[in-house]
Amino acid sequence: MALVASVLVVSGCSSSAPDEGSPGGNGPTEETVLDVTSTQVSLEDGSRGGYDADGNQVVATRELETTIWYPTEGDGPFPLVVFSHGYLATPEKYEELLSRWSSAGMVVAAPRFPLSAEGAAEIRADVPQQPGDVAFVLDQVLRLAETPGSDIEGLVDPERIAAAGHSLGALTTAFLRSEYGFVSGFDAALVLAGGPLDYLVPELAEKPPLTFVDAGTPILFVHGDQDDAIPVEQGEQLYGAAPAPKAFLEVPGADHSSTYEEDSYPTWPVVAEVTTDYLQWALDIDPAALEDLRSAVDGSGAAFLADDELG
Length: 311
Prior knowledge:
single chain; alpha/beta; Rossmann fold; two-stranded antiparallel ribbon; 12 strands; globular; disordered N terminus
């Protein structure tokens, strides 16, 4: 399918990565913390539209405002993480977590989905289109990294790419690793508070069950046991369908959103540390980070690996 993009750099802003001594203990303890900044680009995929549960076209093109966090120092090029936000959320709601990943040596690109973001038309049934959005954004960010004069020129390693997402964005990430919406090129996946399609989008319950493919690509699932939007049992069901290598991190006391969005939330630090370690390991930034992940879980007293098949 031909993809047509319109790229416009909208704004850039500087920020620093969290300090070790900041509230909530959310800084890395034994790793270099890189300064991070962000920019926004407007991407438009003119080859696809957006649809409601009855198949009616709601928008003719896919407009994807995308925020990109990237290190302003360190030895690039860096791995790329494409992040998918939850239903009625925005990329900026996850800024603390995404900038934390970036401060550990990653470029993080997060699109704003046209029909499921905050202020959008609120059409969950458009979620099968979102893997195509992720693939499109991935392609355009890689092109931008090769464009002279762009903010991220030369900063992205096209051989090290991960997909991550929360809630409806977690289901989008699962789609990327399944027969439902498989996209090649990803080396790892991170599913935060996800669940199966028939639970998250009942209006699409007649769709076939999600079947994962591409065994060999690691997937980490994270879920709070106090999640009242997508109960942990639903996350376990999605996890059960995924092939190894995989692991399931359960976080007692964690709710559906705060633990991923608010660095002052009690369980944010362990989620931030474990997900950072996982991405550093899976994207070959630090081969020892898998053991760091396990040590962080064991020493946290705030989470446990309900299953660990990461190798």
